[in-house]
Amino acid sequence: MSPLAADRFHAWSAQHYLLLAITAVGVVAAVLWGRSHRGTRGERTARRGLAVASLVVIVAMQVYWLTPGVRSMRNSWPLQLSDLADYTAVYALWTRGPRTSAFTYYVGLTLTLMAVVTPALTQPFPDPRWFGFWIRHIFVVWAAVYLVWGLGIRPTWRLYRTSVIAVLAWAVAAYTFNVLMGTNYGYLVDKPDTSTPLDLLGPWPWYVLAATATLLAVWAAILTLPWARPRGSRRGG
Known about the structure:
By secondary structure, the protein is mostly helical. The protein contains 9 helices and no strands. Helix 2 (42-65) runs antiparallel to helix 5 (128-150).
C-alpha cells in the first residue's frame, strides 16, 4: 500500500516518515544551493524566485481557507505564529533583510520544525489542507537554513532580542483575539486536540509560560550563542 493512502493523517506513520525524509533531504539541498550562488549575480534571482513561488502557495491556501464551506473563525485566519513565519520568510528571501531572516530562522527551526515532527493534522492526502500544511511548514524550515547556512545571514544577540519582542507582541495580540472571538490561535488558550509536547507542561497557563521560557532559552543557547561566540572560540583556539 502506498504511504500516502490513508483515511486520515497519522503521526509516525509511513507517510509521516516519508515527509520527514523529504524535509531532511531538502535541508541539505537548500544549504548547498544557497552556498553555490551566495554573493553571485544569480543570488538575487534565486532568492526572489523562491519568494514568489512561496507567496503563490501561501496566498492560494489563504484564499482556500476563506472559501464558503471551509471558512471558520477558529482556523481560517493567518494568526498562528507559523503563519507569520510564512510571510517573514517570503520578505526575507525578497529583501535579504537580517531581522526577517533571523525571525524565520528562530521560528522555523523550533516551532515550525516541531509542527513537522509532531503535526497537529488529521486531513488525509490529497486534501488541500494536507498540501497547505506540509508545503508551508517544510518551506519555512528550508528557507531558514537557506538564509543562514546557505546565504550566510548570521544571527546576533540584537536580532535575538528583536525576534523575542516580535513573538511577545504576537502573543499579546493573538491571545486578545482568542479571548474576544472564542478561538485558540497559537494554542494560547488550550492545547491541541492531538498529542504534542505541550501535554508534558501542565495545564493552562503553566504550559504557555513554560513553553515560552523553553523557546526563548533554546533560541538563546542553541540558535544564537554558537554564532555569537568569537570565531577563535568556535575553532577551539
